[in-house]
């Protein structure tokens, strides 16, 4: 499952890497990831043509995009696109932050899964 991890690098800026969530188990055609603890889950919807200026992630969280397409940009000008079905592992809770902007005509529908301190989501970088 596609996942983009965003974190704060040594210079204090947000960086990102493409990867996936490991789904090592399963049977009958299903791929199943391991379970991990979550503190809470909430849902949010943002109208099309919206953007959020420079900010950090408020907490260590997974953002599950259910609908909408958006582009994230970091201070160095690097960017990545999130589409329905993608997962964002947000770990840049300090530093210079990132911005995002919705593209297209669909609202951004998402679920925030708050991870407790030390929880690992099973992210593997694509090298």
Describe this structure in words.
With about 130 residues, the protein is mostly beta strands. It has one domain (about 1-20, about 35-125): Jelly Rolls. The protein is built from no helices and eleven strands. It has strands at about 1-10, 15-20, 40-45, 50-55, 60-65, 70-75, 80, 85-90, 100-105, 110-115, 125. Strands 3-10-5-8-1-2-11 form a seven-stranded mixed beta sheet, with no helix packed on it. A four-stranded antiparallel beta sheet has the order 4-9-6-7, with no helix packed on it. β1 and β2 (about 15-20) form a beta hairpin. The protein is globular, with a radius of gyration of 15 Å. The two termini are about 15 Å apart. About 20% of the residues are buried.
Quick summary:
Keywords: DNA-binding. The protein has 127 residues and is mainly beta.
Strands, helices and their partners?
Blueprint: E1 2-8, E2 14-21, E3 40-46, E4 51-55, E5 61-67, E6 69-74, E7 79-82, E8 87-91, E9 98-103, E10 108-114, E11 123-125
Parallel strand pairs: 1-8
Antiparallel strand pairs: 1-2, 2-11, 3-10, 4-9, 5-8, 5-10, 6-7, 6-9
């Amino acid at each position: 499952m596609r996942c983009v991890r965003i974190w704060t690098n040594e210079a204090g800026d947000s960086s990102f890497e493409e990867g996936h969530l490991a789904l090592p188990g399963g049977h009958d055609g299903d791929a199943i990831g391991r379970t991990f603890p979550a503190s809470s889950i909430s849902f949010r919807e943002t109208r099309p043509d919206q953007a959020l200026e420079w900010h950090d992630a408020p907490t260590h969280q997974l953002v599950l995009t259910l609908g909408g397409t958006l582009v994230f940009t970091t201070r160095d000008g690097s960017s990545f696109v999130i589409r329905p079905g993608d997962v964002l592992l947000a770990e840049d809770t300090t530093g210079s932050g990132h911005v995002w902007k919705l593209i297209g005509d669909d609202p951004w529908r998402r679920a925030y899964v708050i991870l407790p301190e030390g929880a690992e989501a099973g992210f593997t970088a694509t090298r």
